[in-house]
Amino acid sequence: MASKLSIIGIVSVAVVTGCAEPVEVEEIVVAQEDDGMVLDITVPQVEGLDGFNEQAMRLGEQLEGQIRQSEQAVEEGEADLHAEGVLSFETKLLNEKVISILFDGFYSLAGIPRTVHYKETLNYELQSGSAIGIAELFEEENYEDDLLAATNLEMEASGLKENLSFPFDQVKEEQQFYLTEQELVLVFDQYEITAGSMGTQEVAIPKSELENLKDVYK
Question: What is the predicted pLDDT for the residue at 13?
């Protein structure tokens, strides 16, 4: 049975220009157990953003469902090692224009001594309440070449490039990212661009290097 949801607190507040109320990011416990099987899943909720709450809850509930289903192997005597699932989030940017959230999670399935790490992001423009994809950050449609060049430059500077599983030659339309005050950070899951032993990866690109970035995101 799914755990009952409970609001445990407001973790950050910012005043949004033109709005009567401040933006409140509430931390919701989706599941929390530590009796053999481990579940520790929290997600954000923000009112007034189209689809934000549903997407955040879906991430939490999908992980909970996966872990509970896997744990049945232990309950049925088919595995000794319990399942575990953890998901948390961090508000990377919250100002009068934008909210940018990074989810950080990991899980291990029952009977399998291997932990999988992953990250997800949600980015929204506050005035419109709409989600932001990577393409919406830029003034021109042909942003890919400049972003690709900047990404490879940062990969080389950090030493990540020499550990890539294959050349990084395309920024996908569904590329995960988050924003900070100074940077656009591309996010990659475990196994996505490097060997699994290296975990998840992030590539931070200074906004000053992205000429076509829209003013609202600078």
Answer: 46
